[in-house]
Amino acid sequence: MNRAARSVRDAALVCVSVVGLLLLSSPAAVGHAALVSSSPEDGSTVATLPAEIVLTFNERVTTPAFVVVEAPDGTDVTAGEARTDGVAVRARLDDAEIAGEYRASYRVVSADGHPISGSVFFTVTEGRTVDKTRADDQEAHQESFLHAHRAHFLWGAAGVVAAAALLLWPRRREDKESS
User: Fold this and answer.
1) Is 101 helix (H, G, I), strand (E, B) or coil?
2) Fewer CB within 10 Å, N or C, the chain?
3) Strand, coil or helix: what is 81?
4) CA–CA gap between residue 175 and residue 109 (Å, rounded)
C-alpha cells in the first residue's frame, strides 16, 4: 500500500473513531426540557375535571406555551391561553361535565430554544358519557428520534467532512510537491 492510500485510511479511521466517541459520550437529550410531572398525573383517574392543569418540566420553559385539553368527544375544554411560571405551565379548564379519558396536549419552548411537545392522559369518572370522536393516535403526535435530532446529525456530518478535509489537506500538498 502506498503512502497516500495509507494516509487516507488513517484519516478515515481517525474520523470514524472521533464520531464514535462523540456519539457514545453524549447524553440522550442534553439541554432539552422534559416533562417531569403533571396535575392531574398522566394515567390518573379523578372524580371531576379540575379547574386547572399544571405541567411541570425539569427546567425553565419560555413563552409561548400551548396547552389544549380535549374531552373524550373532542371538545376543547381549555379556557384561555396557557401561562408559564418558571418550570410550570398552567392552563385553566372549563368543565364539560363529560366522563371519560381526556387528553392534554402541550407544546412549549425549552430555555435552549428547542420545542418540546407531548400529551398527558387522565380519566374523569363523573359526568355524562359520550361517544368517542377524538382520534387517540398518541404515537402519531410524537416525533421519531431521527426527526427530533436531524439537526444534530447534519452538524455531526458537517464536522466529519471538515475534519477529513483538514486531515487530508497537508497530504494533498505533499503529493503535489513530490510530483
Assistant:
1) strand
2) C
3) strand
4) 51
* Residue 5, SS3 per DSSP: helix
Taking the whole predicted model, whether its pTM rises above 0.70 is answered as no
By CB neighbour count within 10 A (0-12 exposed, 13-18 middle, 19+ buried), where does 87 fall?
middle
Cis peptide before 50 (omega within 30 of 0): no
Per-residue model confidence as pLDDT tens for the chain (179 residues): 566 666 666 666 665 566 665 555 544 445 678 899 999 999 999 999 999 999 999 999 888 899 999 999 888 999 989 999 889 999 999 988 889 999 999 999 888 888 889 999 999 998 888 776 655 544 444 566 666 777 788 888 888 888 888 888 777 666 666 66
